[in-house]
Amino acid sequence: MIKRHIFLILLVLMFYPLFVTTIIPDVLRTPFDTETIGRFIIPFQFQGNDNIPWAVTESVQWDIFRPIYCLSILSDYVLWDTDARMYHVTDLLLSWVCYCLAFFLLKRQFGFLTAAIAVCLWTVHPSQCMSLLKIYGRNDRLVTLFTIAALFTYDMSFIKNEHRKLLFTLTLLFVILSTLSKDTGIFYCLLLPAWSILVKKRSIKETVKSDRMLWSGLLFLIVMFVVLRSIADFSIAIDSDGLNLGLNYFRLQSILIQMGFPLPPVWNLNPFAVCAITALAVITAVFSRKCPGAIRFGAFSFSIFIFPFPFFWIQDSFLWGFWLWISLAMAGSAVYLFDKYVKNRNIVFKLLTFSVLIIVLSISAVWSIRVTRRISAPMIEMHEIAMYAVSSEEGPVYSEENIFSRFPGWAHRMNHGPVEERMKFSLYIVHMIRVETGIFASTMNSPFIRENW
Fold it and tell me: pTM for the complete prediction?
C-alpha cells in the first residue's frame, strides 16, 4: 500500500502533464511559430544546415550565443523531422523536469504545502501556454531549468559536506549550461548567494567564507562572459536593438508585469505607477526579516529574473521563468496566513480556505484556456490555409485567390492590414507550404508578394 505522503507527492508531480494535455491541449497541435520555421526549419530542410557547427554558431549573427538552445532544436529535427507536435512534446518534457526539480527543491526547504501550492499556481498560469505554444520559448525554459538545477545542487551542498567540491562543480556546470541556453543565465547565478542568505539564513560573511570555491568559480565565469562578448565585438544590448532606458524602460517593464496579471487592457495603467508599486512590494518583502523565507526568496528571484530586462526586448515567453518565483512568494504568503489564522480553527475555516485555493486555481485555468485559444487559433488557421493550398492544387506556385476563397477572413486581413503584418503572414504561410511540400520553390501567386519580396 502506497503511503499517504508518497501518494500526495505523486499527485503533485502528475499535475503538470495532466493539466497541459487536458486543459490546454492546443499546445500539442499548434504549428511552428514564425521565428522557429524561418530561423531553423527552413535552413535545416533546404539549406543543408542540419549540422552541429551551424547550430552552434547560428545565434552569433544577433550578438548572442545560445548553442544549447539551437542544438536542442537541431536534435528535434534529427529525431522528428518537421513534425511540430513532437517539438512541443520535447518542450513539455523539459518543462516537467523543471517543474519536478522546483517542487523537490522548494519542498526540502519550505515544506510540502508551500512547494505544492507554488508549482500548481505556476502550472495554471497562462505563462505556460504562452511559452509552450511557441518553440522559441524553449530558451526561457532551458535557462530556467538549468538555474533550478544549479540551485538544487547548491542546496545539496548544505547537507552533504563530504561531497561539497563535487556539488560546487556541478553547480558551476549548470550555470554554464544556463548561460549557453540564454545569456540571462549569467545574471541568474545571483540566486545562489540569495539562497544561502535569505533561505538558509546564513550571514554574508559565513556565506562567502564557506563557499569560497563556488564564488571564485562564478566570478571567473562572469569575467569570461564579459571578456568573450567583448572579443566577439557583441553589442552591449544582448538581445535588442539598443538599451531599454528612460521612459522606454518603464513602459516595457510595465507591459511585462501587467502581462502576468488578469488586468483589463482598458485600464491602461500608468507605467511609472506599475513599476513603483512592484519595486516597493519586492523591496518590502525581501528586506522584511519577519517575512517567511519563501516570500523573501520568491520576491528576490522575481526581481533577478527581470533585472537584465534593459538588455532585451519583451516577449510573452519571458513570463515562464519569473512567474515561478511570484508563485513561490504567493504560496509562502498563503501558508503563512493559514498557519497564523486558520490552522487552529475548526474544519469549516479549513474547508473555506481550501475552497478559495481551488477557486483561484480554477480561475487561472480558465484564463489559460482563453489565452491559449487567442494565441494558437490564428497559427492553426494559417497552417490550415497552407495545407488547403497543397491539397487543392498543384504547385509550386499556389493561387492566393483560390486559397483565400475558402478563408475570407484572412483575405480581408491580407488586403487591409498593415504592410509589415501582411508581409509576416504571407511569409509564414509560404514557409509552411514549403515545409509541407518539401520544395523550396513553392510560393503563392500573390501581387502583394511580388511587389514586396
Answer: 0.93
